[in-house]
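Justification of computing resources. Each target in the renewal requires a structure prediction run like the one illustrated here; the chain below, 241 residues long, is used simply to show the kind of job we budget for.
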Amino acid sequence: MEDAVYDRMNDLELRHWWFVARRRIIAALIGRVLGQRPARILEAGCGSGGNLQMLRGFGEVDAFEFYGPARESADRKTGMVIPFGALPDALPFAGSTYDLIGLFDVLEHIQDDVGSLVALRERLGEGGKILVTVPALPFLWSGHDVRHHHFRRYTAASLSEVARKAGLKVTYSSYFNFFLFPMAVAARGVKRLTGSEVPDDRMPAGWLNAFLARIFGSERHLLGRIRLPIGLSLTAVLEKA
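Resulting structure tokens:
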């Protein structure tokens, strides 16, 4: 992604409503996927480390990251040493296998998404699972995707097909960021009409930030139990076929 985008994300990921609520959703999904057992967990593409403390609540965590400044930030935030890694061909922790591999808004950044899932499939232990989140719905493509260097947005069907080609099966999938979907679509429509380049991820006023975090984060009570029909994002649990 662009350096300015990374700098903004690094500054906001512990307090911006989207990151805060997404961590709550991911934590709820992991709890339903793993149950109460401590697990061996890998975060593939951990960015500047905003998820790592949450993941440590579920077991022993490894993580890797491609982008140097993000690795340095993750080191500072967590006290961990985050090695370089790149999908699909430069994975660290050779010989290690995992109960859960997290791929949180990473797959869309990688041109070879099938090859990346094949590489991660080889790191799954017995009964291991990959938990994926990605941006959803190609018709929502915008300048946000360009600035973040996305290759694509997914549908449930297209993500399932990528998983199938990688020798994986989808055991659960759902769209999410459902409650805010109408407002977000309207806002993107206005930006297209006006040509606005205001970043989607800027920090809103405190009261609005808290409100949006509560609305988005409330979906954690539904995900893993039911499937939401549409949303700005998509999640899936993958297992070896």
